[in-house]
Amino acid sequence: MSSERPTWAPRLPRREIARLYETDARGIVNEDLVNEVGYGLFARCRSVLAVEEAYGERKVQCPSCRAQIRSDPRKDKIISCTACDWSLPWTEFRRTTRRKCLDIGGTPELSQTFKQWQANLKRSQGL
Ligand SMILES: [Zn+2]
Hints:
There is one protein chain. This protein is mainly alpha-helical. The strands form two sheets. A two-stranded antiparallel sheet has the order 1-2. It has one domain. Helices cover 50% and strands 9% of the residues. It has helices spanning 14-25, 31-57, 90-97, 108-124, and strands at residues 59-61, 68-70, 78-80, 87-89. It binds zinc ion (ZN). Residues 62, 64-65, 67, 81, 83-84, 86 line the site of zinc ion.
């Protein structure tokens, strides 16, 4: 039985975002920096939304097979994937999110904006 822990994208260093703005203001297009900041923010938003879905909508994405799992986030419950053999107690799941600033907090519009952005991206890629 697998009990792999979900992993979350880290916060982007402010200095990287500032550097992107500074180079852009000077008319310099640093593609490596654009990609680093862009993909970093994209990954971070996905992590924030995944955590929001887990606690708010009781949907967890299996870190092993990517299946959507419905689960009650109470302390005594276990998240179990029926598509593979992955499982993890909610107490352990909570530990993976603790002190990582992954809550959407007072910005629920971020969720809607990001979901729209993600849908547009998938549509533009023919997914
Ligand atoms: Zn699974």
